[in-house]
Amino acid sequence: FNVIGPMPALAAGNSVVVVDTATRQKVAEVAVGEEPADVAFSPDGRRAFVSNRRSDSVSVIEVATRRIERSLAVGDEPHGVLTNRSGSLLFVLNTASENVSVIATETWAELRRLPASRSPWSLAMTTDGQRIAVTNSLARAGRFRSAPISEMTVLDAEKGTVVGRSA
Fold first, then answer.
1. pTM for this one?
2. Element containing residue 9 per DSSP (H, E)
3. What's the Cα-to-Cα distance from 43 to each of 10, 35, 77, 87, 96, rounded to whole Å?
4. Please, which residues have CB within 8 angstroms of residue 104's CB and are 6 or more apart in sequence?
5. Residue 72: which of 47, 98, 52 has the closest Cα?
6. Contact 40/4 with Cβ under 8 angstroms?
7. Both ends of the chain: CA-CA distance in Å?
8. Which uninterrupted H or E stretch holds 77?
9. Is 48 exposed, middle or buried (0-12, 13-18, 19+ CB in 10 A)?
């Protein structure tokens, strides 16, 4: 079983590595866009999606061949990346532009950009696969001498829409 993942030392080298998890040995290195930040796999395991912060793109890797299938232009400084359970939608967090690109994986077209809170950073799916939580790296300033406000944007995983925010 092989895993593709970015490593801090490789972000500057613009690549991800393939590791044999049984032996913990590197078996390959795949060149991607500039400063890879996050990796997600399609539900069937055939593709890996790598967000590239400096090139404002997502590299789509065919796992079996370890080759770049395509590069998708997304918003400013993409970080978190995740597919929904069906694999029909790819969600990409654009940290600098504070939005989420929703991409149809059948056509590779960006369907929409959803607003997110300050500096969206990571994505997590609920156990039932219905919702995706968007976390942030920075909180919003609160009133003087009060705690900052941390928000979480909640997305509908199948519709690719915002369903709420929670503080």
1. 0.88
2. helix 8-11
3. 25, 25, 25, 6, 28
4. 88, 89, 111
5. 52
6. no
7. 39
8. none
9. buried
